[in-house]
Automatic annotation (TrEMBL):
Its EC number is 5.4.99.-. PROSITE patterns: PSI_RSU. It holds the Pfam family PseudoU_synth_2. The keyword Nucleotide-binding does not apply. The lineage of its organism: Bacteria, Pseudomonadati, Pseudomonadota, Gammaproteobacteria, Enterobacterales. It is an enzyme of class 5 (isomerase). CDD domains: PseudoU_synth_RluE. Residues 1-23 are annotated as: Disordered. One of its GO terms (molecular function) is 23S rRNA pseudouridine(2457) synthase activity. Keywords: Isomerase. Belongs to the pseudouridine synthase RsuA family. This is Pseudouridine synthase. It comes from Rahnella victoriana. NCBIfam families: PRK11394.1, pseudouridine synthase. Residues 31-176 form the Pseudouridine synthase RsuA/RluA-like domain.
Length: 208
């Protein structure tokens, strides 16, 4: 094989493939709001046999817009609209996501101020966020299993609004200011909210 042939051969073999374009959804665009219970994975399959979305949602060909950790609860938006997924999850979109967070300890103004201004985690600084001390939500449901509270240590609730989505960000932020998260509930993503959905319930809403 001459040098030119060898060069062309390797270009064909090792050249980077172009990014695969996202295929258009089959059928109408769908938007599903789901109140994810504690201990449920935000996906439809799991080789270990753990609880997944398939145990609750009968529709197919919809996918979660972003993640909600197994040990977190609340709103999960599922859709077959790639543009909507991007709008809800891509960092550049700065879509607000509201969380109600039960923490161990008593937050003071210094801790809340730090959360608002942003803290520096191992993977870099967080963006400024909304943060305020709030009463326990009136709509709150009982978690199964209940959280483990220590009788000698008080707990409090925070309402935190994020505009980004680092891995386990809320938990790491509250831990950074000395307030370990006991319970984490996502209430809204952009214009989508839990409304009156109870844990394990879902509904399809009009796509706009």
């Amino acid at each position: 094989m001459n040098p030119l042939s060898f060069k062309n051969h390797n270009v064909k073999r090792f050249s980077k493939r172009p990014a695969r374009a996202q295929s258009a959804p089959k059928g109408p665009l769908k938007v599903i709001l789901f109140n994810k219970p504690f201990d449920v994975l935000p996906q439809f399959t799991d080789e270990a046999g753990r609880a997944t979305l398939k145990d609750y949602i009968s529709l197919t060909d919809v996918y979660a817009a972003g993640r909600l950790d197994r040990d977190s609860e609340g709103l999960l938006v599922l859709t077959n609209d790639g543009k909507l997924q991007a709008a809800l999850t891509q960092p550049g979109k700065r879509t607000g996501k509201i969380y109600f967070v039960q923490v161990e300890g008593e937050p003071d103004e210094a801790a809340v101020k730090a959360l608002r201004e942003g803290v520096t985690l191992k993977d870099g600084p967080t963006l400024p966020a909304g943060a305020e001390i709030v009463p326990e939500p009136e709509w709150l449901w009982a978690r199964n299993p209940p959280i483990r509270e220590r009788k000698t240590i008080p707990t409090a609730w925070l309402k935190i609004t994020l505009y980004e989505g680092k891995n386990r960000q809320v938990r790491r932020m509250t831990a950074h200011v000395g307030l370990p998260t006991l319970r984490l509930i996502r209430y809204s993503m952009g214009n989508y909210t839990l409304g009156d959905l109870q844990p394990g319930q879902w509904k399809e809403i009009p796509h706009v």
